[in-house]
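Data availability (excerpt). The following record was deposited with the supplementary files.
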Amino acid sequence: MRAVLMAGGSGTRLRPLTCDLPKPMVPILNRPIAEHIVNLLRRHHITEIIATLHYLPDVMRDYFQDGNEFGVQMTYAVEEDQPLGTAGCVKNIAELLDETFLVISGDSITDFDLTAAIKFHKEKGSKATLVLTRVPNPVEFGVVITDEQLRIQRFLEKPSTSEIFSDTVNTGIYILEPEVLDYLPANQESDFSKDLFPLLLEKGDPMYGYIAEGYWCDVGHLDAYRESQYDGLLEKVKLDFAYELRSPGLWIGQNTFIDPSAKIETPVVIGDNCRIGARAKLESGTVLGDNVTIGSDADLKRPIVWNGAIIGDEAHLRACVAGRGVRVDRRAHVLEGAVVGSLSTVGEEAQISPGVRVWPSKKIESGATLNINLIWGQAAQRNLFAQRGVSGLANIDITPEFAVKLGAAYGSTLQPGASITVSRDQRSISRMVSRSLIAGLMSVGTNVQNLEATAIPVARYIVPTLSVEGGLHVRLHPERPDSLLIEFFDNKGINISKAREKKIEGAYFKEDFRRAQIQEIGNMAYPSQVLDLYSTGFEKHLNVEAIRYSNSKVVIDYAYAVSGAVLPQLLAKFGSDAVVLNASLSQMAPVNEERENLLVQLGQVVEALHANFGAQVSANGELLILVDESGSSIRGELLTAVMVQMILTTNPRSTVVVPVHASSAVEHIARRHDGKVIRTKANPTALMEACHTNPNVVLGGSGDMGFIFPELHPGFDAMFCIAKSIEMLTVQEQSLGQVRSEVPRVCHKTLTVRCPWTVKGALMRHLVETHPADNLELIDGVKIFERPHDDSWVLILPDAGEPMVHIFANSSDREWVDSSLMQYRKYVQDFVQEQEGGDMSMSADN
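Predicted structure:
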């Protein structure tokens, strides 16, 4: 008798385990499901097996080959173009089936008595016999009803709860006579339950159900996959183990070493060539594949670990699945129901929350907490918040469901009934995400003042005027046009503190949400006259007469990336002419090369129109690059120096706030005007807070982050910066090019070097320990004053979001800057190499 083993499925509900493995080849107790089926067939003297293949067919063919090693004869039929369905793939090999044959699914574990089922089929003279079993919850299966002679009367494929009429279900094992295949069309998709069996019922052909005793589990989803392993260990199902039984409930493969201090609670399976470290604990239900390494003091509670995995010291695995070649580093936690796909890495002290799925070849950074499935991209960040708000790929990382959850987490950290603003740029993706955030906020009883599409400076200005607790702003990421950035403001319009971010992260990852009663659901309102309020404040803090007197002409390039082009209206009101370029938002925000082309175009227009200057505005109204009257661009450190020069000329003996990495040209300019410089950490929140809390601050920021005018509001505002520049140039009777020529000449360069997260702290400590304390400044990173007398310094600054460090060198001596950059790049690279080499040596010792 021949058997047809249907092995074509891709196992979608078992993802991520089946991304690179067909479902019948997924291991149960370290043997593929298909091998357990082959063993069952052989026990019942069925040794001619035809496997129908579709998804990754070579995996099964390479494993079983001709079947000789498994005591059977294997042949294969591959569905090349498209799947033909359960019946169609059998019809496809009808010429090989000239006598009674058995069909069995390749994704179930069973020990049914197939010999008894075949005998029943022949005794009844049946054309088709369905092997049935009784289950407590038949919703997931085809339900069957039989008469007293077990002839099938009715069946229904995967009924709803209201349609259940029996607990007797179809197991996908059939005994068939070859002539039933004549009813099926050739080379067409067809299904046994939906097509063939209803036809046999209609024609009155004898079709019976054999109700089998024994174990059966359809390994159709991850919970069933784990349960079938545990049932196998407890010997609830008769399976052939791949390893020797060393003691009751303990199967161990060859060449495996278990440290004498390790604790093992049976039943447990441990494969060939495994290494179990000192004081490791394996609780009952644990299954380890071949070539698995378990570190010292690791704690394993019923995980299923596939071949080649490495589990680090003090790691904790809880009823999870770790795929082939997975690495779980020291003190990491993989919790109940989580799945880590093949060749993925879970970093030190990282945590994968219950039920989370990680697709193959992903990297979870050290210290990260992963609370959502990791499918796209390569890595999971350690925190929800990055350097600036929450960011991620649009509609991949930042999805509607993510935003609803984030909104609920934020709202749960506020008092019930609190109000916040929500604003966005004019992109469709930002509208979608802001609406999802609003839904989450309202669900926890937070009221929303919806500002809709609003430039971010306007949104920050409005927050204090509405007496709200804070605000959210959604926009395209200023540096990555395929990503979104969600920023959180406090009640002053300043980015929230790290402490507040941690509270939101805690609520998000723990899903600690306050659910409001119906009558407590938040309300949403649309504030009126938002632009009028901003315009009033804008005008109040400008020397409007000076602007009117100037009759200035400026060219503003919005680079397809700014919503709410308020500035031209305001400048027109003050008698200035604003020529606007590229204000449409129908195009995607430009990438670097396109933006550079637009900047060249802007310079040409400024020169052709004899304009006073031009400005390219981006980041929804926060950032800008200036272009002087000759068409030359002013950006980065030069722009910082130009703005400081203009503001301190207008306001001598005042204070400016700049990030720690800004050029020392700022100090040179401040000395000219009896001004004061405050340096802060290199993040927007630190700049905003310093501008707000220190007296007499007239300007904050930098060319890379934008500029803050604290008299107006605490955020970056490119629009006000343009108007203020017109005012200051008019009062000082200078052109932008003249101001540029007066800026001190300081050489300031930077480069970036790879540095793993786990090495950053050690690198900073080593820098501090190996340099004189008097030469160090530790505002952010480590700044080393090699030549304090002339403001020559090097800053090593860890990146907040990537495994990198940035090296800045600053001096009036260009050669010193170049040599210092090379010196410290080598310093960092050598240190990283030494640390990584040490880690590898420790791993080898373990």
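Summary of structural features: Residues 159-164, 839-846 have pLDDT under 50 and may be disordered.
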